[in-house]
């Protein structure tokens, strides 16, 4: 690990390794320790104070007796040298030891990681044999984790979200049911809507020059990008900066509602957008521009029901706790936000709706949302 060192990082690392009586400490089992990671993520989302997860693994040791002896020594050394407020436990039972360093003030991530590695190496060298020390691999994981928005793979660190993977395993049957509903529902919808595809395509071509479909990179579950499809509703070559500026303010809670057409209440939306074509305005009002997303559902990038897929520059403006809307479940064509006010709901409230859906999800809830969606579409609630 090639990391830089600095005086500030050294002082912080020293403060993380203070002598505490071992008898006053305990080692959490795997389930409890991973729940603590989940709790600390939520706490950090509110307090904005990062935490550091350190993992020590002896996976290369083939002798179970020697491995147990090494792990016991590692635990004893960590319990005696870390702060009383830090949490020690099994990340992987009898295989990987973890320590949660909480309530940190990290100015230079590379500096603190380098200094921490030096400090923990010194502690372990003082308590282990040369052979035991060489068998240990150490990794550090800081939360909030950095999301690289220029890559197509999963930017979120799976190590910090093991509870989500465990939940998926316990929900395997339900997740399979949801996927089956998506395949059947999107297939039927595409068959029924095929005649409308031709009519809409002709209307788009007649109203402006350019392709029928609009393709855009969106953020799916775990932050993984995918190509999002819509019927094109804007003129080609428009400037996206107007939308980016408004969305950034909306996420920060600084956006003002814009006047809507008719007697409906104002909306958090660019309601009079010169970039939208005449045909596009009609398609948007009736949500007909969304029909190609059934192809995204059939492919598996989206679901029929879930949070709306975010644009990368939206995710870049998220607070830490906002990210959970793209971590918990796949994005969807419709969801609780769409049937509960849509663009008249503040962003934080929208995220809360998405999180409530993710945590209370069931096939029956999806069915109820799907049944409420046609009314919202026909009434044009919050659509512009």
| Helical content class | 40-55%
Helix-strand string: HEHEHEEHHEHHEEHHHEHEHH
Number of strands: 9
- Return the average pLDDT rounded to an integer: 83
Work out the count of structural domains.
Answer: 2
The gross shape turns out to be: elongated
Per DSSP, what share of the residues sits in E-state strands of 2 or more residues? 5-15%
Q: How far is it from the N-terminal to the C-terminal residue, by CA? A: 51 Å
Main β-sheet, spatial strand arrangement: 1-3-4-2-5
Q: Which parts are unreliable, with pLDDT below 50 for 5 consecutive residues or more? A: 1-11
Most strands sheet: 5 strands, mixed
Helix count from the secondary structure assignment: 13
Question: Rounded to an integer, what's the Rg over CA atoms?
Answer: 25 Å
Determine the structural class based on helices, strands and strand pairing. Answer: alpha/beta
Keyword list:
about 375 residues; alpha/beta; Alpha-Beta Plaits; 2 domains; 5-stranded mixed β-sheet; two-stranded antiparallel sheet; 13 helices; about 45% helix
What does this structure look like?
This protein has 384 residues and is an alpha/beta fold. 46% of the residues lie in helices and 12% in strands. It contains 13 helices and nine strands. It has helices spanning 7-16, 30-47, 64-81, 109-127, 130-134, 162-170, 172-207, 241-251, 278-285, 293-299, 312-316, 347-359, 363-379; strands spanning 27-28, 51-57, 87-92, 96-101, 137-143, 213-219, 225-231, 303-305, 332-334. The strands form three sheets. A five-stranded mixed beta sheet has the order 1-3-4-2-5, sandwiched between helices. The protein has a two-stranded antiparallel sheet with strand order 6-7. Strands 8-9 form a two-stranded parallel ribbon. Helix 7 (172-207) runs antiparallel to helix 9 (278-285). The radius of gyration is 25 Å and the shape is elongated.
């Amino acid at each position: 690990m090639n990391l830089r060192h600095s005086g500030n990082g050294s002082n912080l690392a020293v403060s993380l390794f203070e002598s505490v009586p071992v008898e006053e400490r305990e080692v959490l089992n795997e389930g409890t320790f991973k729940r603590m990671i989940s709790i600390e993520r939520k706490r950090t989302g509110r307090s904005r104070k990062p935490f550091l997860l350190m993992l020590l693994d002896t996976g290369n040791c083939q002798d179970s007796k020697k491995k147990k002896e090494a792990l016991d020594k590692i635990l004893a050394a960590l319990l005696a040298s870390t702060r009383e407020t830090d949490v020690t436990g099994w990340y992987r039972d009898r295989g990987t030891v973890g320590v949660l360093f909480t309530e940190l003030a990290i100015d230079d991530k590379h500096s603190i990681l380098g200094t921490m590695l030096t400090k923990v190496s010194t502690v372990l060298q003082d308590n282990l044999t040369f052979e035991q020390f060489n068998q240990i691999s150490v990794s550090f994981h800081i939360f909030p984790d950095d999301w690289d928005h220029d890559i197509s793979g999963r930017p979120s660190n799976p190590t910090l979200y093991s509870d989500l993977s465990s939940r998926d395993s316990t929900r395997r049957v339900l997740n399979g049911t949801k996927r089956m509903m998506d395949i059947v529902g999107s297939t039927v919808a595409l068959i029924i809507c095929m005649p409308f595809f031709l009519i809409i395509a002709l209307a788009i071509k007649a109203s402006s020059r350019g392709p029928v479909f609009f393709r855009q990179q969106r953020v799916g579950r775990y932050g993984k990008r995918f190509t999002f499809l819509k019927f094109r509703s804007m003129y080609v070559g428009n400037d996206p900066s107007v939308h980016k500026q408004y969305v950034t303010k909306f996420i920060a809670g600084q956006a003002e509602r814009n006047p809507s057409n008719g007697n409906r209440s104002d909306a958090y939306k660019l309601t009079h957008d010169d970039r939208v074509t005449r045909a596009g305005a009609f398609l948007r009002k009736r949500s007909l521009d969304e029909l190609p997303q059934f192809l995204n559902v059939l492919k598996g990038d989206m679901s029929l029901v879930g949070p709306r897929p975010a644009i990368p520059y939206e995710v870049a403006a998220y607070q830490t706790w906002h990210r959970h809307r793209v971590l918990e479940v796949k994005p969807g064509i419709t969801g609780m936000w769409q049937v509960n006010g849509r663009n008249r709901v503040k962003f934080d409230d929208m995220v809360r709706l998405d999180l409530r859906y993710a945590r209370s999800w069931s096939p029956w809830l999806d069915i109820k949302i799907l049944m409420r969606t046609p009314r919202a579409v026909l009434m044009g609630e919050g659509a512009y």
